[in-house]
Queue: 3 jobs
Job 1
Amino acid sequence: MNLAGQVQTLTKDEMQRVHDSACKLLEEKGLAFQSDEARETMKRHGCRVDGEMVYIPKELVEKSWKQCPGTFLLEAMDSKYNVTVGEDILIHPAGGEVFVLDHDGRRHAPSLKDCGDLQTLYQHCENVNIGGFQPLSPGDVPERVKGLYLTHNAMQKCSKPILSPMELETVEKKEEVLKLFDIAYGREGYLEDHYLTWHAVCPNSPYLVSQFVSDGIRVYAERNQPIIIVSAPMTGITSPIFLMSTVILSIAEMLGCLVYAQLVKPGVPVVMSASLTYGNLRYATWECASPDTALMLATSIQMFKHFYHLPARAQTGVTSSKVCDFQAGMETMQSFLFSALAGVNLTSQTVSSLAGLLTSSLEKTVLDDELIGRVRWMVKGMRLDEERWDLGELMEANVGQDFLLSDNTLDYMHDYWQPTVSDWATIEAWEAEGKKDAEQRAHEKVVKILAEAPETLLDREQEKAMTDYIRFVEERN
């Protein structure tokens, strides 16, 4: 039996109460939309508008989320990496980290090369399904065209689906990045018929939908590209101290943005993302790896999957540890495993992230790749076909015998999970290899992957067209 979705924190009646409460907030409290265009669109479709406040009727909320597909195909430049969002578990890059942790323990500000190195690892790591996004914000490229450099760099290093960067502050920057996708796929208008990327937008808790968020929804929905809505309230800081109050606020904010997306483009895919966190008032910090955060994520995932029947995304597999140590492994596994058992379909921050989403590590990327593989293997459960229920071997066995050379052992011995970084050798073999710990072995793997990676995965025509376009944008500005 597949174990995904088996962890549920709410009863059916409690799920309905969460939804009703979120709708009550939208209808009676409302959301502040800074965009004139968004407010006008909402007003035309039956919302009450008073200044910046938009009050959304429950009937419109329920009509809108039922228009969203439960699954959709996200295409890659290499079609063998196409993925279906809403089925199983998909992993995509971290987003927003501001430092890189070197193997020697020093932190440094990121460069475009650091971003490319991470994209190369994403290409290599079997358990990372999607590339691009903005795992780091490089300081050695012009701010005006940073999004173009990040997108081009990702396409050079990774042929999996490529996500748009986070920091596309203007409509112009968003449209320029989408132009690179037109170039990559060979013709104008290809995006309108295929899902190739998405834009992640984050309302500001409590109740504020910024111009940036509204523009992101509109521009990407008009091109028929999916919208990821990331509400990230923090208990006791930007939301009430109670976990359930924070969940309800988060869902209300995401539903309000979902409504706007459906009004712009009915049927455009929308993914709601659980990124809410426990505010640690002891240190005036927020803890993405807290057990309380895990409970809120699981509750949100259950609502997304079992109430709204939409793909469930979460910011999970994270840690507050500053280095790749026991704490990092413990918190990453706790966070990711619990979300996986709750049924998460799509995750961010699950590879490379340290220090409460402030730092990325190349070594942790390959360590996390193995961790994800472990969880995926467990969540799918044991194979229970008739052959595995057969008692023949057991009935024929002699007392005290072994099964090392039995037909089944020899036929199926390679069907079970094996580590990619962890050491399962004997103590003597481990000592003979230099007593390396997991982080050291991960570093050696990183060095090998980067040394063997090609300069670019793009063909000559794609490379020229993209660099020419970026140069054109630079000269125009």
Job 2
Amino acid sequence: MDFLEINKVLSNKVRIDILQWLKNPEKNFPPQINVPDFRDGVCVCHIQNKTGLSQSTISHYLTLMHKASILIATRHGKWTYYKRNEEEISNYINFLKNNL
């Protein structure tokens, strides 16, 4: 776990919103076409639509979050789906509890 990279990622309100939305994707996003039960996450297009930001901005945000290991990316054809990496998020929270 790269504590500083995760902190950088979490220093942005929209990226925190994305993590919160992905915690309960059924409640926050429309049904997925290729992944009906959200097992591989939420399509980038749905995340972009919810934020109202440009595709390039959302792609950049999701890439940062993926590189920090707090999101898992899965490709289905030309579409990429993202879900939370619960293990890494838990490691981060435990690090905070135990070290700060």
Job 3
Amino acid sequence: MSTSLHRVVVADANVLINLMHVSRLRLLAKIPNYEFVVPEHVREEIAIAEQRSALDKAIADGWMKVEVLDDMGAISMFTELITHVGRGEAACIAIAAKENWHIASDEKKRFLREAEARVGVGRVITTVDVFVLAIKAGLLTIEDADADKRTLESKKFKMPFVSFRERVE
């Protein structure tokens, strides 16, 4: 009997948008043992019509679930956090902390410090991590990931390596 680890990950807008830029949002539905959810605050941040449509389709298709802040402890944490980070980022941290989930975000500095303090070190995954998980699961080739890397870098999302091969091998 398999005892695979199931991880729920609260997705921030930057990871979702990066995946949308390269038409890879659906990868989130296919990565084994991971379930991705989106806070309503993050959904509201997706303002470009085409991207909002892609996210709404994922929600309608049932493989992405919307999370609403409705717990008083999480709302209190959210209220405290929005003085330091954006609303979507604050919602990600508050929900992940309440549920003991992971976070998908490319934010650094204050966000990362807050997330690690409230959710735990090693519980934030990035766009790069999503690509690595997809490659390891056989959902994407290194060559396709490298092509997507070039596209993302043309949109100002820089990655500190030449090829995903360096991250997978």
